[in-house]
C-alpha cells in the first residue's frame, strides 16, 4: 500500500494528537495503582509487560520519525515480523515501564510537526498523522486489555471510537457491524462484551 492509498479520513487532524495525549493520561492513571504482575487480556504480558510494550512501541515511533528526518525511509522490519519484534522489545526492556511510556509517548507526540510528513514504517513510508492514529489505537485497545486487572472494560468515547474505526477500515478493511469499538476490538483479535458501553 502506497502513501497515496491512505485517505485523509484515516487520520483526523489535529484531533489525533490531543486524543492521544488524553488516552496516554487515562492509561497511565489506570495502571498507577495496579499490581504490575497481574495478567492482562494479552496473555503473554502482565500489566508491567503490556506497559513496557507500549513504551517500546512509542520509542520505536520516535526513532522512526528521527530516522525519516535524517533521510532514511527503510522499514524497521518486515510487516510479518511485528509480533516477534514486540515480544523481543518487551523481553529486552529495562527500567520503569510507566515512566518510560510517559516519556516515550510524550516525546513522540511533541516531535510531530506536520501530519503529512513521511516516516518509515514496516508497511512502507506513511504519513506521521497515520502513525499517531496507530499509537492512539495502541493506547485505547491496550487500555481495554487491562480489564482482568482493573475489573472493568474500557471504552475511549464515541468520537475516538469512530475515528479509530475509520482509520482501521481505511487501512485494513474493518469487519462490519454497528458498534465501531466492537468492530475494532474484533479486528484486533479481541472479543467485546456487549455491556461495555
Automatic annotation (TrEMBL):
Q: Name one Pfam family in it.
A: MDMPI_N
Residues covered by the Mycothiol-dependent maleylpyruvate isomerase metal-binding domain: 22-147
Instruction: State the source organism's domain of life.
Output: Bacteria
Q: Which InterPro entries does the record cross-reference, listed alphabetically?
A: DinB/YfiT-like, Maleyloyr_isom, MDMPI_metal-binding
Molecular function terms in GO for this entry?
metal ion binding
Which ranges of the sequence are coiled-coil?
none
Q: Which NCBIfam families does the UniProt entry name for this protein? A: maleylpyruvate isomerase family mycothiol-dependent enzyme
Name of protein:
Uncharacterized protein (TIGR03083 family)
Biological classification of the source: Bacteria, Bacillati, Actinomycetota, Actinomycetes, Pseudonocardiales
Amino acid at each position: 500500500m502506497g502513501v497515496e492509498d491512505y485517505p485523509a479520513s484515516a487520520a483526523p487532524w489535529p484531533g489525533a494528537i490531543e486524543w492521544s495525549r488524553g488516552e496516554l493520561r487515562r492509561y497511565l492513571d489506570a495502571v498507577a495503582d495496579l499490581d504490575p504482575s497481574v495478567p492482562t487480556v494479552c496473555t503473554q504480558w502482565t500489566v508491567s509487560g503490556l506497559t513496557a510494550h507500549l513504551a517500546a512501541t512509542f520509542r520505536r515511533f520516535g526513532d522512526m520519525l528521527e530516522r525519516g528526518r535524517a533521510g532514511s525511509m527503510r522499514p524497521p522490519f518486515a510487516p510479518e515480523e511485528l509480533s516477534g519484534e514486540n515480544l523481543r522489545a518487551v523481553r529486552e526492556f529495562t527500567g520503569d515501564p510507566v515512566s518510560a511510556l510517559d516519556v516515550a509517548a510524550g516525546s513522540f507526540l511533541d516531535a510531530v510537526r506536520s501530519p503529512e510528513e513521511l516516516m518509515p514504517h514496516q508497511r512502507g513510508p506513511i504519513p506521521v498523522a497515520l502513525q499517531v492514529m496507530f499509537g492512539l489505537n495502541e493506547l485505547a485497545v491496550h487500555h481495554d486489555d487491562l480489564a482482568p486487572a482493573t475489573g472493568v472494560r474500557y471504552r475511549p468515547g464515541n468520537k475516538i471510537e469512530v475515528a479509530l474505526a475509520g482509520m482501521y477500515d481505511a487501512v485494513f478493511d474493518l469487519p462490519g457491524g454497528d458498534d465501531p469499538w466492537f468492530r475494532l476490538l474484533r479486528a484486533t483479535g479481541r472479543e467485546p462484551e456487549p455491556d461495555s458501553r
